[in-house]
């Protein structure tokens, strides 16, 4: 009887721990772009971490902004500021693969924001005029691929995707 109670308590403790962890991860994963401000890539030409006091729910994710002005710009025209390919790495999409984009590795081309999975990505896209068109062509198929495991750099308090 004592063993049974101990096992039940251990099971309850594990359920609470793992259940809490799942809720935390689910909540964290809603933060888009690891918490970076999508408007800053255009206005400041660099990634800036957003402030939680300026955040906005859009299409199932929470976007954070560095200022009320950036939040207002986003609300007026979200499609202008959202990363292409739903935040996936543009170079990988061009190869027909699905790899997480890192908001610290980025490029704006023709008024559109592209993220990359490695720091070499922006330079590759700058040199390869056909990458964008290959990615555009591959996107319908790549978008339906299974979601890969979350890489280490995406773990933590400000996850994206």
Structure report:
By secondary structure, this protein is α+β, with helices and mostly antiparallel strands. The chain is 43% helix and 16% strand. The chain is built from seven helices and four strands, in the order ααββαααββαα. The protein has a two-stranded antiparallel ribbon. Strands 3-4 form a two-stranded antiparallel ribbon. The longest helix has 28 residues, at 2-29. It is globular. Mean pLDDT is 84; it is low at 6-27 and 157-161.
Give a count of the beta strands, DSSP E runs of length 2 or more: 4
Low-confidence stretches: 6-27, 157-161
* SSE run: HHEEHHHEEHH
Strand order of the largest sheet: 1-2
- What structural class should be given to the helix and strand makeup? alpha+beta
Distance from first to last alpha carbon = 47 Å
* Global morphology: globular
The biggest beta sheet is recorded as: 2 strands, antiparallel
Note the beta-strand portion. 15-25%
């Amino acid at each position: 009887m004592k063993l049974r109670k101990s096992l039940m308590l251990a099971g309850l403790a594990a359920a609470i721990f793992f259940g809490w962890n799942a809720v935390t991860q689910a909540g964290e994963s809603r933060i888009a772009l690891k918490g970076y401000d999508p408007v800053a890539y255009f206005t400041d030409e660099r990634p800036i971490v957003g402030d939680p006091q300026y955040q906005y729910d859009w299409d199932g994710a929470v976007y954070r902004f560095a200022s009320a002005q950036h939040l207002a710009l986003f609300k007026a025209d979200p499609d202008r500021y959202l990363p292409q390919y739903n935040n996936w790495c543009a170079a990988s999409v061009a190869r027909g693969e699905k790899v997480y984009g890192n908001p610290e590795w980025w490029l704006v081309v023709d008024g559109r924001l592209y993220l990359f999975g490695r720091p070499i990505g922006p330079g590759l896209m700058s040199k390869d005029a056909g990458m964008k068109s290959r990615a555009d062509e591959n996107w319908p198929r790549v978008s339906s691929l299974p979601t890969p495991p979350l890489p280490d750099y995406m773990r933590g308090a400000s996850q994206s995707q």
